[in-house]
Amino acid sequence: MKDYPLPSRLNLGIAAAQIAALLAILWGAGKVTGAWPVVALAAAYGVVMNSAYALLHEAEHNLLHPNPRVNDGTGAVLALFFPAPFHLIRQGHLGHHLRNRSDDEAFDFYFEGEHPVWKWLQLVGILTGLFWIVLALSNALAVLKPSMLSPGRAKFDRPSAAVLASLNPKYERLIRVEALGVFLLHGTLAWVWKIPATHYAAVLFGFGFLWSAMQYVHHFGTVRDVQKGARNLRTFAPLDLIWLNHNWHLNHHLSPTVPWLYLPFLHEGPEFARSSLVVAYLKMWRGPRLAREHVQNRYAGRIIR
């Protein structure tokens, strides 16, 4: 880390700008009329909140700020606009770094004994934003019935069961508090700014669709290795910068303790060349295929600390 110091002041400045922009977009959702202005606000929320997600992703890896309270507190505030409990999505993401490309997390494959239609539905859910909707609805489960987030509830689906099995019970109360914070924040904003429910849902889904569509685009069709099973992608330079180099995904998986600022400069070689994010997304519509090779999750049974 001496070679890659945390840009902590820069991160906090970016976080403040992101939160201000997100609040402004939600305020605007209560002022506009007609479909096209709402679509424009949804697109803006998608771009800005994906930037905020990239920064809370830094917090998930303890890379936003060296002070743990500032790191986690900033991540938790940004996660409210997701909206999801920070300590829930953090555990899911850190677990992803352990399960990546194993049989426990290979959405581009189905295995002997699994129904290909179910795997198709899962992948389509990722591609169309349904994955984000499911995660957003987990706020209600976290508040009303946290027991629904137990591994036994997801025996029908191996990836979901693997995620839930990795959750640490010590975070249950904190996740519940953060989920309550989601309802308090969004309920207050919608009431004070008189935002129509349809406007609110559409604007948040602008982020949900983009985030969900990009959740597996960096891994689809890659080598089945927990670290090397990712690829670097590109959009256009300003958007890559706004999204804090998040598309340098192979570099991140190989060096997950390096802050976002340095990711473009870590590796050289043809395997690190960047391809189009849009093309990679379109290729995912080919759907899952039957896998002959099994790759076991070496960290099965480990809970997130």
Largest sheet: 2 strands, parallel
The backbone outline, from C-alpha atoms, is globular
Structural class: mainly alpha
Low-confidence stretches: none
Look at the structure and give the mean pLDDT: 94
Number of helices: 12
Helix content class: 55-70%
Q: β content, as a range?
A: under 5%
- Total strands: 4
Widest sheet: strand ordering: 1-4
Distance between the termini: 21 Å
- CA-based gyration radius: 19 Å
SSE pattern, N- to C-terminal: HHHHEHHHHHEHHEHE
Compile the SSE list and pairings:
Layout: H1 8-29, H2 35-60, H3 68-80, H4 86-99, E1 109-110, H5 116-128, H6 130-144, H7 158-165, H8 172-192, H9 197-213, E2 233-234, H10 237-242, H11 249-254, E3 275-276, H12 277-283, E4 289-290
Parallel strand pairs: 1-4, 2-3
Helix pairs in contact: 1-2, 2-3, 2-4, 2-9, 6-8, 6-9
Description:
This protein has 305 residues and is mainly α. Helix content is 55%, strand content 3%. The chain has 12 helices and 4 strands; from the N terminus they run ααααβαααααβααβαβ. The strands form 2 sheets. Strands 1-4 form a two-stranded parallel ribbon. Helix 1 (8-29) runs antiparallel to helix 2 (35-60). The longest helix has 26 residues, at 35-60. It is globular and about 55 Å long. 37% of the residues are buried. The mean pLDDT is 94.
